[in-house]
Structures are given as structure tokens and as C-alpha cells.
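User: Reviewer 2 asked us to show a designed sequence for the structure in our supplementary figure. I'm pasting the C-alpha cells here. Could you produce the per-position amino acids so we can include them in the response letter?
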């Protein structure tokens, strides 16, 4: 499971999170979080946003594959008897560890540029969608 999650903190403040799978790079998760921040900013009627807190990390997930057993049988007939050979093979389950990227931004949205270090939401959407061929 993965995807985007949003939590409203205040009228113009949201926490936006993205959870990737084992095939998603941390860079991609970070950019997709930023993309969703820009989309949310536009959806809420604002044009710009500041990232006031951010977090990126990998979540380590270990799962165990089940044990499995295979059976095979071979029958041989001769004039005076029948032979049955049964082979049983047990394979213990393996543990598999994957690393799933997580990225979160807390953003504050504005109608007009608030300071020097803001993001223009339209520019972010256009650029990231173009970089990842999402049009």
C-alpha cells in the first residue's frame, strides 16, 4: 500500500505525505510529495507555498515467505512387483527485507509570494509532471 495522505493542521497549513513501494526511489518520493503539495495548494485556491517542515526516510519491512513442501512419485512395474518411489523435499521459508521510501512536508499556503524561499505551485506541477512524463 502506498500513495498520498494529507492532514489539515490549520486553514492554510497541511501535512502532505507520500508512501512509496520497494521500487520507488527516495528522490522520486520526495518529488512526488512536492508535486502533491503544489496540487493541493492550487486546489485550495492558493498560488504559493512554503515548506516549513520536511522528513524523508526509508521504512524497513521484513516479511517471511511460507515454508513449502514438494512431493513427487515414480512408479516402476516389473513382471512380479510394482515399485513406488516417493520423494519429499522441504524448503524453509525465506525472509525478505525491502525498503520503502517515505516523504512528508508540512506546508503553509499563500495567495501571494510570502518570502524569498517559496514555491510557485503552478511551476512545480508543470516541472515535475514534465520530468516524470505525467501529462
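Assistant: Here is a per-position design you can include in the supplement:
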Amino acid at each position: 500500500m502506498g500513495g498520498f495522505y494529507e492532514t489539515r493542521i490549520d486553514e492554510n497549513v497541511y501535512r502532505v505525505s507520500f508512501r512509496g513501494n520497494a521500487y520507488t526511489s527516495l528522490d522520486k518520493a520526495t518529488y512526488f510529495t512536492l508535486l502533491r503539495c503544489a496540487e493541493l495548494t492550487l486546489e485550495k485556491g492558493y498560488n504559493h507555498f512554503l515548506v516549513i517542515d520536511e522528513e524523508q526516510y526509508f521504512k524497513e519491512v521484513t516479511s517471511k515467505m511460507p515454508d513449502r513442501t514438494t512431493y513427487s512419485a515414480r512408479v516402476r512395474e516389473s513382471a512380479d512387483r510394482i515399485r513406488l518411489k516417493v520423494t519429499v523435499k522441504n524448503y524453509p521459508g525465506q525472509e525478505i527485507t525491502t525498503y520503502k521510501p517515505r516523504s512528508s512536508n508540512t506546508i503553509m499556503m499563500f495567495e501571494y509570494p510570502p518570502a524569498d524561499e517559496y514555491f510557485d505551485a503552478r511551476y512545480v506541477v508543470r516541472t515535475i509532471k514534465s520530468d516524470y512524463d505525467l501529462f
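For the response letter, you might also mention the following. The helical segments are 26-43, 121-131. The chain has a mean pLDDT of 93.
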